[in-house]
Amino acid sequence: MKVFPNRLDRGFYQYQEEFENKAIEVLRSGQYILGKEVEEFEKEFADYTGTKYCVGLASGLDALWLAFRILGIGKGDEVIVQGNTYIASVMGITINGATPIFVEPNCYYNIDVDKIEEKISDRTKAILVVHLYGQASQMGKIKELAQKYQLRIVEDCAQAHGAMFKGEQVGSFGDVGCFSFYPSKNLGAFGDGGAIVTNDKELDRLFRIYRNYGSERKYYNCVIGANSRLDELQAGLLRVKLRHIQEINQEREQICKRYLSCICNEKILLPQIDDDVTTVWHQFVVRCQERDKLIDYLSQNGIGSSIHYPIPPHMSEAYKDLGIKPGTLPVTEKYANEVLSLPLYNGMGIEQDKVIETINKF
Ligand SMILES: *Cc1c(COP(=O)(O)O)cnc(C)c1O
């Protein structure tokens, strides 16, 4: 038996009939861009996250860069972000010409809120909070700092659909909550997709303009926008999935609780959960000092795994011009060398037994 790091087909088969019916309905409707499915999805997703507005977009990256563009954050401005995030978070900042200021993560792999204040300067305009691997960040302290220094908060919720801090959903704390519906995310589409949520009516209006070439009225363009529309087919399929998101997240939780109680190996450090938050278990990330040996060992036993992420953004070739030297962010860099994501997907069955048994013998 081979175990893959992910099996997206399993998630499809769990609700096959509903997906297929919706796909046929949309295909036959003759309406493929900005129609009823997107409109309904936006209402349902805003409702789900406990926010007033949602705007469907083409990807999570678009949600991020459009957020900073619309908030007027660009050249000469600084945005605080954790060092150990997916590079898209950072690109959302730098596409606009703004500078990312990296902060080290805590033991939950989210931004260490005690290390933010020392990085705030008079150029700082925003904090980009990433709820990594499905776990919500410490929003109380972050909101306090944002208030004290008049900073915007943008949340990167790409991995955290439904995660909560003290009972409130991520995406609802900041000025803008950015979501991705990339197929592997907890609320994943069958292609690319993204959205923002906000409680600010004016921001909602601006996202609608920017996603559609900068026009509110067709062919009358008021700003240089983008083509970043969630399409009808993806929106329809996402509506199906959104009906089941609680089950989807609960199943992931069950799998991860089993990993937590059954993996027993002193070389493997298991993930920890902050008492104030809930996680929706986007990834099950362990740490191991002999990580590369562990990967080989698992692979020899037919088990795939993945690294989220092997190269932190500040050490990526894409960001060599930032001139940040290796060693500048020791915790981030240590995590990059030690983290490993174990197989985790909806519809995972006895494959999990094999992962547990194998890893315990490492
Ligand atoms: C997936 C992801 C993104 C980007 O989303 P896309 O839809 O792939 O553009 C941004 N940030 C984080 C943390 C992600 O995991």
Strand order of the largest sheet: 1-9-8-5-4-2-3
Percentage of β-strand residues: 5-15%
Q: Number of helical segments?
A: 12
Rg (C-alpha, Å): 20 Å
Structural class from helices and strands?
alpha/beta
Euclidean distance between termini CA atoms: 18 Å
Mean pLDDT: 98
Query: Residue share in helices?
Result: 25-40%
Order of helices and strands: HHHEHEHEEHEEEEEHEEHHEHHEH
Largest sheet features: 7 strands, mixed
- The general outline is globular
Q: Please provide the count of β strands.
A: 13
What attributes characterize this protein structure?
12 helices; two-stranded antiparallel sheet; binds pyridoxal-5'-phosphate; single chain; 362 residues; 7-stranded mixed beta sheet; globular; alpha/beta; 37% helix
Describe this structure as you would to a colleague.
By secondary structure, the chain is an alpha/beta fold. It contains twelve helices and 13 strands. The protein has helices at 8-14, 16-29, 36-49, 60-70, 87-94, 139-149, 201-210, 232-243, 245-262, 291-300, 330-338, 351-360; strands spanning 53-57, 78-82, 99-103, 124-130, 152-156, 164-165, 168-169, 176-180, 194-198, 215-217, 220-221, 284-287, 339-342. The strands form four sheets. It has a seven-stranded mixed β-sheet, sandwiched between helices. It is globular, with a radius of gyration of 20 Å. The protein starts with 7 loop residues before the first helix and ends with a helix. The mean pLDDT is 98. The site of pyridoxal-5'-phosphate has 15 residues, from helix 4 and helix 5.
